């Protein structure tokens, strides 16, 4: 049936979802109403918590075309359900980017109505009902073509560059603008701060608080007023603090987004008029005029005329001005490759992104700097960032899954207790009212009310400790996950190495040959050379408030030649019909000094003294192209010059072959292997027919060809002082380190060796993957980095020493250590991802250097590592790392700028020493969570046993007994045992990732059995005492004679009857034993080394436990009538009190010895308990490492090739053929 067909929205995107159509059903609504009434509203709560049940209970399935409600389910591992109501809006046409017929007719006839409202009144039949729903701040509209809902895109998809210039650059009419606004809505990233009442209702309806409400009702019914009141106070404090935190976060985000979100902007209309409107009224297709003094961009827009200098720190984290140029018009370049489809990512050098700061503009007189709006609201780059903060993906961590499973186990235990209580009470003919109350009470005892607060305490304390050492966290739940990190990816420049580069030297080329390296380019002999002219002009530097700003590499290069840069002022530009070029000139002291004798020589001297170069056109640096280019003109010369700089391999490929030295690759490799950053320069004299106007419209491909290779600039990027020591600490802790950089691969390998990421004796295998070409399959050529140059001329026999050796580590928890590492660049990584999927896990298992990686490839690498079960950390300086920082389990930004909002952690200090600090705190917080969970589980089980034993004699714990246990003991212990600081150094051992592990289960189960055993011993032994008798109001075991007289008295039976049977010898015995058991398990479970400092260093915990021990001893050994009366304890002989003390001491000794034995001999014990079979590792990467140990074909041998051959269609995979 059509209605059963499954549709997908946002296909192949991060927020891909399945969508199902439903419509309301009246008879189902009636049944639901009856169910709600019968269950006292609980069924309604259940439907509130489970959206899929709510929809299925009130609606029937139908096609998406006819539905009134949609049910959505994410396709990721979480499979979360959402529902949304279908709404209808009315428009003149079905599509926002196509002019509806009525508008086209009215425009052609010259008759237009004043507004959409007037048109609607006169032509109501021309309304198009458009069905849509809103999910996570995005509108999904019905699309007849695909018979499903989709997002209406702006001009960011399926719009060609030529149509942007030809169709969209004229501006919109008011009617088209109003038509589009119906679809796109208000251009605003609206972060609504929910009202306190709304937040309160949402918080109170949390299942945990509903359970607490249920517990309080049960306790009040059973007259446990004090305890119920205490829990209510705790819940109120918890709700208020939670509301305060949530509302504060909303307000912070709202204020961050609201700043500059509404500004007045000028837009060009189709009739050439400039209209001033609010930025909230902008729609895709509007032509926005960028003011000369700059602005904060309220939308994503593509530049179609002029140039802008923009600070993109909000997006990239790098506070470096970027030059944005106008989008080239393919129609003006007949020789260009063809008409491209515009994409904000591919054309980011021409795109102004929302939230970025336009510092200044450069423009023609009479031709304003214009940009066409392509995306608005939440569709913009800033909007998507805000959405990712507003609607984060849930954290998938084994601890939380196991905690949920453990709670279910407690519920099962509670169910058993419930049945036992009911059966026992019926057999003892207890009134029905009491049976109901007591059986429900056992459920409230089993699931501890303070559990969520207790679990959060360790994380909150860890967050505070991190803040003290300059690490700020916006996602506290991630701290626990950082305790499991076993692999950390590092960006290179600015992270492992110093941010700035120093000019080491230059090596020029003349007549196709390298000259000797020179230390400085700043000399009289070179001042007028093309090499220095390229260094002076080929950059994106600009003067901002009198200081040079721009890319640090450009800045270092320009400072090295000591030239002067001057930019035209706004007034100077206004006097000319063209943009006044930026001018660079050398300082006068560098120009040749001579005293001319003749007039002719004087003229030449004047010309030389005013040697200036104007930058006529700039093609900014593109990370995709790995180069930048400028067109310049020397003052007084007619012909223009083109200069280009960039990655040496790319520049050499665009130069005339005869100008590139034969030993180019050898020289380049020598530099890169030593860790230098190398940049190549090239030059070309342009044809005299190229005028200034032609240059402004020419395609960069026409300029960047047939260049003359000029030589290399060699920059030195020094390692940060702390880098080797930090990486050594991580290696000692069995944490893998990986380098992910945009730099040259051999440079990256050299830096990896220098910092200890790759040891001197270890081999590096370079995977050079080539895509399919000319009928040949995709292939990977395997080279060994140290033998790369040796094998260019000849192919000697393979030395057996070159082949890496596999070493198996005895510790099976970690992958076998090997003496080889893989290295590859971004292009190879892309080919391997597409054509060699089977090899990806093998390569990432030992991949250490990933060079020339684009930002999205960094994210793909993190994902590939996570797919083989690594817990991945990512440390970057914020620039280009945002995606990877968000994707990683623990992303640490070394930038304090606004981009750090994308990273869970931000370090105040730009040093990687924050990485081991974060992992140490994560491990401490994780161990604290385990300790607290184990303690809370034991607390609920101990109390459950106490109550169950007392129920067998129709007794219970008293109200103030519960109060003493829960408030005086449990809360104090829980919140102080979480205070242990992290251990001072990282160790190779890692804490377990989940609660359901052999060691933890054995620990919990053994303590449960010990506590159960000693409570049972005390409960049964008291009945064997000679003074024991069923307790009555006249009983007094401390003074039997007085008790006998009281019972003989004629008024002896007038004493008030104990309705709940709280006062008895069994209750007193069980109460004392259980109080000590809570303190015993708190000490036993409060683990220290190797992840936390020892408990004796936690002063508050030590003092709390000692005070509680003294208090409990005092109550037990030195009874006061007022205390006994308050706690409803009965007097027992002193000998029995000593006996209880002995029971407690033996209990403590046994608990400590068993836990110590489990810690010390857990390996032997667990292997004998579960059999001595070989351990099969759970993590995919460990399993794969073991498999590869016995694979004779792995690692690939030097100078071999692996081809991907298409398999038969029904298989769908690929065969790997190795060719030697």
Automatic annotation (TrEMBL):
Residues 268-389 form the P-type ATPase A domain. Its EC number is 7.6.2.16. CDD domains: P-type_ATPase_cation. The keyword Magnesium applies. It catalyses: putrescine(out) + ATP + H2O = putrescine(in) + ADP + phosphate + H(+). GO terms for cellular component: early endosome membrane; late endosome membrane; recycling endosome membrane. Its main location: membrane. Pfam families: Cation_ATPase, Cation_ATPase_N, E1-E2_ATPase, P5-ATPase. Residues 13-143 form the P5B-type ATPase N-terminal domain. It is found in: Early endosome membrane; Late endosome membrane; Recycling endosome membrane. The chain crosses the membrane at residues 29-49, 226-246, 403-422, 442-462, 930-954, 960-979, 1000-1022, 1068-1086, 1098-1118, 1138-1158. GO terms for biological process: intracellular calcium ion homeostasis. Residues 164-219 form the Cation-transporting P-type ATPase N-terminal domain. GO terms for molecular function: ABC-type putrescine transporter activity; ATP binding; ATP hydrolysis activity; ATPase-coupled monoatomic cation transmembrane transporter activity; metal ion binding; P-type ion transporter activity. Keywords: ATP-binding, Endosome, Magnesium, Membrane, Metal-binding, Nucleotide-binding, Phosphoprotein, Translocase, Transmembrane, Transmembrane helix. It is an enzyme of class 7 (translocase). It is a multi-pass membrane protein. Belongs to the cation transport ATPase (P-type) (TC 3.A.3) family. Type V subfamily. NCBIfam families: ATPase_P-type, P-ATPase-V. ATP-driven pump involved in endocytosis-dependent polyamine transport. Uses ATP as an energy source to transfer polyamine precursor putrescine from the endosomal compartment to the cytosol. This is Polyamine-transporting ATPase 13A3. It comes from Pelodiscus sinensis (Chinese softshell turtle). The lineage of its organism: Eukaryota, Metazoa, Chordata, Craniata, Vertebrata.
